[in-house]
């Protein structure tokens, strides 16, 4: 009886096994229980376990189609035969592969934009990094990027270099003690972990600063996938097994692709849809995090007008953003590449320079933050939630910021701390001007990210007759001209306020726009130098001082600034002025100039091209000098240091106290008190 029972049980188990095996052969994508994002559901191909060419990520060497569904539990992984027509017999090739973490596809060359009624170009970037669209089960559509670690000689475009198959500088398989130190820049071709740290630290900073609405979120994941199958691509179908950077999708297209260099009625209408707070937020992002490569190919606008910035690998450097006036990116759109970078054109500098200024500006100038800020000025009206973050950072050391945000380079934390301090000290424009003061003036020849070109007034519309004229598409010129004046403005009625009129009152003749005039004081860059010498002071002026080398080149109202420099002990300084040659009068005193100089501190001057300090050449009278004008007078008394002392005419008691002070100081130095 026992034997019979066991036999019956064995027969039962065997029968069950047969049913199970038959069921496995009919398993398909419909039986999969993996929860998928709707985007992933739409992108996932159907499959059946018994179809020819089905494999898994683990069992296939090359694959034509990735599947996010995992291999069903308890099922032996399918493994197609190796080889085939034109293939290495040792390579297992699959038509479809289960178990991918992301489905990768190549970027298209163009995409439709319904808002402007045409297809627009998709830029792939100039760095050569691998940039692909992706779909994951959890997040749906994403973008994925790598700077190394893909096999098969992957090229982003035929003109790019192949991606390095190994991340030899800082790959995850290299012991940390043997990795090279991270470089200052982010997104470097051939690097991996340093690029990941750079971008993830920036993402965390943006989150804490409440600025994530300005740019897509980003993170790092290990990718199990295959390079997209594209005929003619040497790397098609090669297995991907490496860490890559993921990004949320920025909807729409780049602003440079949308405009195509000219403006028409539809692109003007889309420009007017852009929320002003989007532009201001993006500009604050670029200034706060010191973006040095913000051009129109990485500023995106959606069908509804929402604006985001992408590719933030130029952070923590100088500022050079098309959203912020004064940098090279902005200036190229304003007056043309030839006028800004003539030395970078094909041919010789003698042939190309000085470059010709464009007759009209590119439409990108209307994305200047000032066109979208009330009164064309931000000041301390920073985006919500930002100031408390700045206050927290201000209390931290650069090392603490570096450690907390796991940054890739300590200099990034130092640069960030400076920007935070300057924003808190006086707002957006204060920080912008302070940073530009550290950047060399552009000469109209060199290409680079660290130049400053002067602050021109904003160009916030396409109205002719203003200081700027935006380039209109020839075929659209008549229909565009039929638009109302309000329809030609980014923000009708948003005129410059008092602050904007003070900071950029009119067109500025920046050094790169000046032309050689033969003046012996004019340098190659077109700059005129005017020594602060008494011999150059113009006579018969009572309300202000004017220093001039000739009738055309002079500086007025410089007495307040020169007094401030004298008072704080500066005897060697370079003062740069643009525009009308007038030193801002501020409150009419030397206080503000003295305060700002004292706040940043003084350093020894060095000779050009040398580390040697320039000897102090301060003028000192050898005897007491008195200059009178009626009852008023100024008296110069020989001394080793500069002092400014009042000399009251009516209160001899006060003058007596000053005498006592001078006497004590002279005795302390072992000198005789000057005779009065």
From TrEMBL:
GO terms for biological process: lipid A biosynthetic process. SUPFAM superfamilies: Ribosomal protein S5 domain 2-like. Residues 1-23 form the signal peptide. InterPro entries: Ribosomal_Su5_D2-typ_SF (IPR020568), UDP-acyl_GlcNac_deAcase (IPR004463), UDP-acyl_N-AcGlcN_deAcase_N (IPR015870). It holds the Pfam family LpxC. GO terms for cellular component: membrane. The keyword Repeat does not apply. Keywords: Signal. The keyword Signal applies. One of its GO terms (molecular function) is UDP-3-O-acyl-N-acetylglucosamine deacetylase activity. This is UDP-3-O-acyl-N-acetylglucosamine deacetylase. It comes from Micromonas commoda (strain RCC299 / NOUM17 / CCMP2709) (Picoplanktonic green alga).
């Amino acid at each position: 009886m026992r034997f019979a029972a066991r036999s019956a049980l064995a027969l039962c188990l065997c029968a069950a096994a047969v049913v199970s095996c038959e069921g496995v052969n009919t398993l398909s994508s419909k039986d999969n229980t993996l929860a998928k994002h709707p985007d992933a559901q739409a992108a996932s191909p159907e499959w059946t376990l018994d179809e020819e060419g089905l494999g898994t990520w683990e069992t296939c060497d090359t694959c034509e189609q990735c599947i996010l569904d995992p291999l069903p539990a308890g099922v032996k992984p399918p493994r197609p035969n190796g080889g085939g027509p034109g293939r290495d017999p040792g390579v297992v090739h699959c038509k479809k592969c289960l178990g991918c973490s992301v489905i990768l596809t190549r970027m298209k060359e163009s995409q439709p934009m319904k808002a402007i009624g045409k297809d627009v170009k998709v830029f792939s970037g100039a760095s050569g990094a691998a940039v692909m669209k992706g779909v994951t089960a959890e997040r749906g559509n994403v973008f994925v990027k790598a700077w190394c670690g893909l096999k098969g000689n992957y090229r982003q475009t035929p003109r790019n270099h192949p991606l390095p198959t190994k991340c030899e500088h800082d790959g995850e398989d290299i012991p940390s003690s043997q990795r090279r130190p991270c470089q200052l820049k982010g997104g470097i071709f051939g690097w991996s972990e340093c690029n990941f740290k750079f971008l993830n630290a920036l993402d965390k900073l943006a989150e804490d600063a409440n600025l994530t609405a300005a740019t897509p979120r980003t993170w790092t994941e290990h990718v199990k996938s295959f390079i997209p199958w594209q005929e003619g691509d040497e790397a098609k179908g090669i297995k991907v097994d490496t860490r890559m950077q993921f990004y949320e999708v920025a909807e729409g297209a780049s602003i440079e692709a949308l405009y195509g260099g000219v403006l028409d009625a539809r692109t003007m209408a889309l420009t007017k849809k852009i929320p002003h707070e989007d532009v201001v937020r993006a500009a604050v992002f670029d200034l706060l995090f010191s973006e040095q490569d913000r051009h129109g190919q990485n500023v995106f606008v959606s069908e509804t007008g929402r604006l985001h910035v992408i590719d933030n690998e130029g952070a923590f450097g100088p500022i050079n953003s098309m959203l912020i006036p004064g940098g090279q990116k902005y200036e190229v759109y304003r007056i043309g590449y030839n006028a800004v970078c003539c030395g970078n054109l094909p041919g010789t500098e003698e042939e190309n320079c000085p470059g010709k200024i464009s007759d009209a500006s590119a439409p990108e100038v209307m994305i200047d933050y000032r066109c979208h800020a009330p009164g064309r000025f931000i000041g301390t009206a920073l985006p919500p939630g930002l100031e408390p973050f700045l206050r927290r950072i201000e209390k931290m050391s650069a090392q603490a910021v570096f450690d907390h945000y796991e940054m890739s380079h300590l200099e990034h934390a130092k640069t960030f701390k400076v920007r935070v301090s300057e924003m808190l000290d006086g707002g957006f424009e204060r920080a912008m001007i302070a940073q530009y003061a550290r950047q060399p003036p552009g000469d109209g020849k060199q290409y680079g990210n660290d130049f400053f070109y002067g602050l021109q007034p904003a160009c916030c519309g396409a109205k002719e007759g203003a200081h700027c004229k935006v380039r209109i598409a020839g075929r659209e010129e008549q229909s565009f001209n039929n638009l109302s004046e309000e329809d030609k403005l980014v923000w009708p009625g948003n005129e410059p306020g008092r602050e904007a009129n003070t900071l950029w009152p009119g067109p500025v003749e920046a050094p790169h726009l000046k032309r050689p005039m033969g003046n012996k004081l004019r340098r190659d860059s077109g700059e005129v130098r005017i020594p602060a010498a008494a011999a150059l002071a113009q006579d018969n002026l009572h309300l202000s001082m004017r220093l001039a080398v000739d009738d055309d080149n002079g500086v007025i109202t410089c007495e307040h600034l020169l007094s401030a420099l004298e008072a704080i002990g500066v005897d060697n300084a370079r003062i740069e002025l643009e525009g009308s040659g007038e030193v801002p009068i501020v409150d009419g005193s030397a206080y503000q100039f003295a305060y700002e100089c004292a706040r940043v501190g003084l350093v020894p001057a060095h000779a050009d091209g040398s580390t040697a300090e320039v000897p102090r050449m301060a003028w000192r009278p050898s005897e007491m000098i008195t200059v009178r004008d009626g009852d008023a007078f100024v008296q110069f008394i020989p001394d080793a240091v500069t002092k400014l002392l009042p000399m009251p005419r009516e209160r001899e008691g006060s003058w007596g106290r000053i005498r006592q002070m001078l006497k004590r100081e002279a005795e302390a130095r072992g000198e005789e008190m000057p005779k009065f």
